[in-house]
């Protein structure tokens, strides 16, 4: 009798909506964290093999089939290293920065549509959320640059701020055309709207602007100014070692995937595709996009900071505004000829 | 409340502050142990100061405690990226002092090795410059081709970096049989690759933006500071000791001295590519014209030049390489002074650095192409 009572009370305990949500949250978090870890191992291997392919080398081939276990060895090395906090750093800011950088990455993964009905949180303002969250990493990078008490780190951090002011505006503007076409900021709605034609064909200009600014957002060459290793040693991560460096590294690769996923969702029809299951289509498209990003990254030299500003303010912002204007005209013409409201 | 006055104070506090940054001696882009003390206003350089001497080994003094032949390998450690050229400059100085006639075949062999070495050296400069503007792939392409040059050098001299091939009075060894087909293959292979690099790197929009009008050295400035070598020719002065005062077998070989006019980082980069093409021409002709005969002159076992002094200069990979040798008639030099082109060229950095961005500084420094082994000696 007693035990029965007990079970009921535990059951009731789990029936409590607050506890329920909390538990679901924990499960989601664990799922995303596990997904990212596995993903980063694949991406690291892919990055090295792609780089080697472009550079007439072999890349890692010794450990595991095709060198697939190389990142695992690297991860073990990273974890086994000492957790050093240099003496003269701002301890709180310095230690918090890598966690925050990784946190923003996790938050982005929460809103990605991985497949049909396969989203952690289906936000009705998904696009806005992604734009907002992905730029908060900048604050964390500045924290790392400032807290490290190193001049190279500081310059790296300052460059990040200079960059976000420049590229965040065209980044957001380039997505406005899509929002105008679909009339929704929900990722699922945007994907459904691309049933017949991908937005990359309707919004080619927006895609170009988006890709350039996305490279800047990712801090990848030609816009890898905050961590320019030939100038600033390693920029804002100069003073980080061990797993703190590992977190930043992890976040970098994870961001590459999430940015590719956003590009696929907004411009290439997301998880839609014939025959194969939707999550597989999503993975295929996104990894192809990642390959494209790596291709750019391993081909182009680094742009100079003032030229980057000029490109953003004088070319990309006018182009993205022009794109909004053209989209508006296009929608009106479409409505005029078909006598319909909306696409 | 005193909101307004607070704001005013805030504006006063917002004055920017210059700060000093130590670039090097351990820095990925200072190519060895060069240290530049930069005073920065934001990212703009206000003042630059060279700090040298981290690689000082006292080469000039070491020479006084070694016999003349013993010092030949030491010269390879001066400009370790063009070791054969340093060896050549030194042995020619001793030969000049003693009046030794070097056999013709040896002169041609020296030219072949020297030009291969020049290509290897230029390739490293091109690669590292490309890496400094973060075109990592370009860097590896250059390294891939440089490997082929090093293979050729290894085939002849047995070493890849410090070849120690030149001897006072000639060279140590003749070319092996398998060298000739390999060098033919190499001469056919490289022009296509150079063309590819020209389109891939020189044609790249971002690369041009990074390099053009950066770190301009005008012809007058170059002459004032004594800048020599490719840097001088990129500024528009047609001066190459191989042509102006031909030594070794260069007088009998037909080649051109490429000249560009802007003297910026881009031209300094491009002129190396052009010089590599001329070096290929020289190697091709030297292999064709290679005469028969001995490879060593009759030189006494213990070299004892007559008392006196001599200065000899030649075209190194980075500019005029000079050796001033004083002999007191003994088996060891009384005094040796080395005139290294890198040391002279690096002196122009404080003059061209102010007003540059931090990123420009690297492009300018990399294209001036100094070798710290030669600067600090």
Largest sheet of chain A: 2 strands, antiparallel
Q: Tally the helices of chain B.
A: 16
At the first level of CATH, what is the class of the largest domain in chain B?
Mainly Alpha
Q: Report the total helices of chain A.
A: 13
Strand content of chain A: under 5%
The shape of chain A is: globular
General form of chain B: globular
Beta-strand fraction estimate of chain B:
5-15%
Can you tell me the CATH superfamily of the largest domain in chain B?
Cytochrome-c3 Hydrogenase, chain B
Q: Report the biggest beta sheet of chain B as strand number plus sense, adding barrel if it closes.
A: 3 strands, antiparallel
Q: Could you say what the CATH architecture of the largest domain in chain B is?
A: Orthogonal Bundle
Task: Sketch the topology of chain B as an H/E string, one letter per element.
Answer: HEEEHHHHHEEHHHHHHEEEHHHH
- Structural domain count of chain A: 2
Terminal Cα separation of chain B, in Å?
67 Å
Number of strands of chain A: 2
User: Class by helix and strand content of chain B?
Assistant: mainly alpha
CATH topology of the largest domain in chain B: Cytochrome-c3 Hydrogenase, chain B
Terminal CA distance of chain A: 64 Å
Most extensive interface, residues per chain? A-B, 27 and 28 residues
What are the SSEs and their pairings?
The complex is a heterodimer of chains A (343) and B (377).
Chain A lengths: L1 H14 L1 H38 L15 H11 L10 H20 L2 E3 L2 E2 L6 H22 L3 H32 L4 H7 L5 H4 L1 H14 L11 H4 L9 H26 L10 H20 L7 H34 L5
Antiparallel strand pairs in A: 1-2
Helix pairs in contact in A: 2-11, 3-11, 4-5, 4-11, 5-6, 6-9, 6-13, 9-13, 11-12
Chain B lengths: L2 H11 L5 E5 L11 E7 L2 E8 L7 H6 L7 H5 L6 H16 L5 H29 L3 H22 L8 E2 L2 E2 L7 H24 L2 H7 L7 H7 L4 H5 L6 H4 L20 H25 L18 E8 L4 E8 L7 E5 L1 H6 L2 H4 L5 H11 L3 H5 L1
Antiparallel strand pairs in B: 1-2, 2-3, 4-5, 6-7, 7-8
């Amino acid at each position: 009798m007693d035990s029965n009572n007990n079970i009921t009370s535990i059951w009731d305990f789990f029936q409590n909506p607050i506890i329920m949500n909390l538990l679901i949250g924990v499960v989601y978090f664990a799922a995303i964290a596990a997904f990212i870890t596995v993903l980063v191992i694949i991406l690291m291997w892919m990055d090295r093999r792609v780089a080697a392919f472009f550079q007439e080398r072999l890349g890692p081939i010794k450990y595991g089939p095709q060198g697939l276990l190389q990142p695992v060895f690297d991860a073990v090395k990273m974890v086994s290293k000492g957790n050093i906090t240099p003496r003269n750093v701002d301890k709180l800011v310095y230690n918090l920065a890598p966690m925050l950088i990784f946190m923003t990455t996790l938050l982005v993964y929460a809103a990605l549509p991985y497949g049909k009905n396969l989203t952690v949180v289906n936000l009705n303002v998904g696009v806005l959320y992604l734009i907002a969250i992905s730029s908060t990493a900048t604050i964390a990078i500045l924290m790392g640059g400032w807290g490290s008490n190193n001049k190279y780190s500081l310059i790296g951090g300052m460059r990040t701020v200079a960059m976000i002011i420049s590229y965040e505006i065209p980044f957001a503007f380039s997505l406005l055309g899509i929002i105008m076409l679909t009339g929704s900021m929900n990722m699922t709605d945007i994907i459904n709207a691309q049933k017949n034609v991908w937005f990359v064909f309707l919004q080619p200009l927006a895609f170009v602007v988006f890709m350039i600014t996305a490279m800047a957002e990712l801090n990848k060459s030609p816009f890898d100014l905050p961590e320019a290793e030939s100038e600033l040693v390693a920029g804002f991560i100069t003073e980080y070692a061990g797993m703190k460096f590992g977190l930043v590294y992890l976040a970098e690769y994870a961001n590459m995937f999430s940015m590719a996923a956003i590009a696929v969702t907004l411009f290439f029809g997301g998880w839609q595709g014939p025959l194969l299951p939707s999550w597989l289509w999503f993975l295929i498209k996104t990894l192809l996009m990642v390959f494209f990003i790596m291709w750019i990254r391993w081909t182009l030299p680094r742009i100079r900071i003032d030229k980057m500003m000029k490109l953003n303010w004088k070319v990309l912002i006018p182009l993205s505004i022009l794109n909004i204007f053209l989209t508006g005209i296009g929608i009106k013409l479409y409505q005029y000829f078909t006598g319909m409201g909306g696409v | 409340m005193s909101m307004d006055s607070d704001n005013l104070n805030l504006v006063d506090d917002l004055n920017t502050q210059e700060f000093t940054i130590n670039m090097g001696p351990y820095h990925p882009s200072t190519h060895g142990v060069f240290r530049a003390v930069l005073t920065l206003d934001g990212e703009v350089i206000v003042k630059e100061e060279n700090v040298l001497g981290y690689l000082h080994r006292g080469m000039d003094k070491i020479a006084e405690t070694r016999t003349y032949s013993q010092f030949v390998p030491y010269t390879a450690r001066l400009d370790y990226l063009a070791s054969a050229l340093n060896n050549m400059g030194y042995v020619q100085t001793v030969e000049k002092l003693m009046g030794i006639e070097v056999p013709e075949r040896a002169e041609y062999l020296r030219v072949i090795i020297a030009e291969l070495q020049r290509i290897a050296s230029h390739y490293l400069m091109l690669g590292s410059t490309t890496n400094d503007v973060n075109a990592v792939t370009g860097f590896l392409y250059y390294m891939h081709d440089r490997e082929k040059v090093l293979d050729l050098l290894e085939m002849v001299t047995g070493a890849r970096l410090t070849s120690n091939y030149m001897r006072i009075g000639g060279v140590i060894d003749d070319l092996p049989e398998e060298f000739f087909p390999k060098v033919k293959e190499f001469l056919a292979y490289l022009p296509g690759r150079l063309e590819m690099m020209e389109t891939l790197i020189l044609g790249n929009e971002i690369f041009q933006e990074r390099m053009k009008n950066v770190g301009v050295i005008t012809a007058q400035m170059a002459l004032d500071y004594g800048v020599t070598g490719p840097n001088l020719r990129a500024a528009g002065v047609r001066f190459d000791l191989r042509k102006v005062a031909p030594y070794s077998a260069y007088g009998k070989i037909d080649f051109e001295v490429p000249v560009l006019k802007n003297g910026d980082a881009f031209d300094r980069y491009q002129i190396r590519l052009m010089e590599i093409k001329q070096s290929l021409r020289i190697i091709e002709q030297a292999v064709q014209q290679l005469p028969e005969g001995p490879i060593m002159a009759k030189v006494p076992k213990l070299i004892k030049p007559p008392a006196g002094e001599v200065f000899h200069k030649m075209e190194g990979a980075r500019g005029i390489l000079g050796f001033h040798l004083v002999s007191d008639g003994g088996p060891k030099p009384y005094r040796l002074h080395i005139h290294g082109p890198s040391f002279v060229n690096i002196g122009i950095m404080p003059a061209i650095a102010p007003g540059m961005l931090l990123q420009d500084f690297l492009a300018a420094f990399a294209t001036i192409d100094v070798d710290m082994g030669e600067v600090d000696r």
